[in-house]
């Protein structure tokens, strides 16, 4: 029987191995770590631009993709939410969520033209939609806010915002972020009316003192008119004291409710 003689090139085993490797690399390119992280960041920036106040709705699938790259270049915060608990006044979930959105919007506005704009992302997650993610973090009570930095391997080891710090609302959240990351949130941009209202309460009667100041200016024009308009000193002090008491009660309620919040457990059957 005559033997078929193979061409020398095709009979070379090293050549075949090299050809196989080239073929594999050409048709099955291996994604690099940086490309994977870059793709995730691009997707999150797009989602953030489409979201309300820059807070992205987190799902089980999105969380899985965020955690898939071996190395991550950004930190992210999660506001754990449950719509069925919004009517529980002691939890104040709607208020806290609104403050959380203020922090997110302020961070974006303050860092829009800086390299830090993609270093922190803000998410909220709904219990009924993503119970698996709640279990990954070990979250069983609300309110609950976590920060996951790039080095976290076990999600249960991520940083938790202490409920006792929630009394200062958005400002506390911003300080929490800045203490755990190298990124500056910047000033909180509140709506003008809301900001002025709480500033007046917090100062314990700025409105009343401003009123007296205006009356003082008016007295330069018509002293008799100013005397009729300015209320008695005792009434002004009482008004100022009332504003201070309202603010103190509000702040105390937020702080004292922290223990009640921690006992508000999540039930999948709710």
From TrEMBL:
Subcellular location: Endoplasmic reticulum membrane
GO annotations of cellular component type: oligosaccharyltransferase complex
GO biological process assignments: protein N-linked glycosylation via asparagine
Membrane protein topology class: Multi-pass membrane protein
Gene3D superfamilies cross-referenced by the UniProt entry: Glutaredoxin
One Pfam family linked to the record: OST3_OST6
Family: Belongs to the OST3/OST6 family.
Protein name, UniProt field: Uncharacterized protein
Native species: Nepenthes gracilis
